[in-house]
Amino acid sequence: MFKRLREGIARTRDGLLNRIGRLFGRREPIDSSSLEALETALLLADTGVQVTESIMTAVKKRARDEGAPLLDVLRAEMVTALAPVAQPLEIPRSTGAPFVLLVVGVNGVGKTTTIAKIGRYLQGQGLKVMFAAGDTFRAAAVEQLKTWGERLDIPVIAQGTGADPASVIFDAYAAAAARGMDVLIADTAGRLHTQSNLMAELGKIRRVLGKQNPEAPHETLLVLDATMGQNALQQARTFHEAVALSAVVMTKLDGTAKGGIVFAVAQELKLPLRFIGVGEQFDDLQVFEAEAFVDALLGTGDEGR
């Protein structure tokens, strides 16, 4: 898994290390040009201004003190920045009602495929999973989810194209409860964060679920595309304001050199980052671990893996 993680974020790692690799292991004091090179490399990786400033402050302090190696300082500060959001998804057992996972995001982020991967992950934990095809605007989305359901032996509740998404998800919850399912994962139509009418629709879905179970949805999960860089951060802000997100998934980290956006999202939202996607295969959706991510990014911590 660590090998796949390293391979998956290779573009970001290579871009970062190519810019600052010459600084690693240097014995002479870190000078102003070195600090500038580090700051530029972090910003170009889309790490974000706040996180970059925090890292730079730590580097300057350690440089003044005992001349700690730059790589050690970077690793420690990066892990500190990400550790608070490294919280895996935990499904309560034997509650007597399905745990509802509502999945939201803009078009093209890989939302439906992510749902399938999460479903398989939960199956591996011995949980009974059902899908709700709440993206009724696109017939292809419903068929895609049905196809994944057939492959994974996961039941899918769906209606016709153009059906009321809240109605579909309402029926799906009733079916999940009747069949004793542990988890209901509800797909929703991809929408731009600027489409206020569609954002309001998500509010309706939440209200309908709340009538069936006051605690539902138990998780409102935003899927973000890492290749969008800072625009992904703006999407996250707007979705959070509209539907009170509870967690995030970051996909397509293998397709960008700006994987530092993980730090910016963690700093801005302070929401749990449940999974990261580093490829197309099922195992390429990985539970997010702060130390493993930083080690894969900096090329450290390989021993024993």
Characterize the quaternary organization of these chains: single chain
* Shape category: elongated
Mean pLDDT: 88
**Count of beta strands:** 8
Structural category is: alpha/beta
Give the SSE order as H and E letters.
Answer: HHHHHEHEHEHEHEHEHEEH
Helix count, DSSP H or I runs of 4 or more residues = 12
Low-confidence runs (pLDDT<50, min 5 residues)?
Answer: none
Strand content: 5-15%
Radius of gyration: 21 Å
Calculate the terminal CA-CA distance, rounded to whole Å: 9 Å
What share of the residues lie within helices? 40-55%
Description:
This protein is an alpha/beta fold and 305 residues long. It has twelve helices and eight strands. The protein has an eight-stranded mixed β-sheet with strand order 3-2-4-1-5-6-7-8, sandwiched between helices. The protein is elongated.
Question: Which characteristics define this entry?
Answer:
8 strands; 305 residues; eight-stranded mixed sheet; alpha/beta; single chain
What topology does this entry show?
Elements: H1 2-8, H2 10-20, H3 32-44, H4 49-64, H5 70-82, E1 99-104, H6 111-123, E2 129-132, H7 139-152, E3 156-157, H8 165-178, E4 183-186, H9 196-212, E5 219-225, H10 230-243, E6 247-251, H11 261-269, E7 273-277, E8 285-287, H12 290-298
Parallel strand pairs: 1-4, 1-5, 2-3, 2-4, 5-6, 6-7
Antiparallel strand pairs: 7-8
Helix pairs in contact: 1-12, 2-3, 3-4, 4-5, 5-12, 6-7, 8-9, 10-11
Quick recap:
The protein is an alpha/beta fold and 305 residues long. Helices cover 49% and strands 12% of the residues.
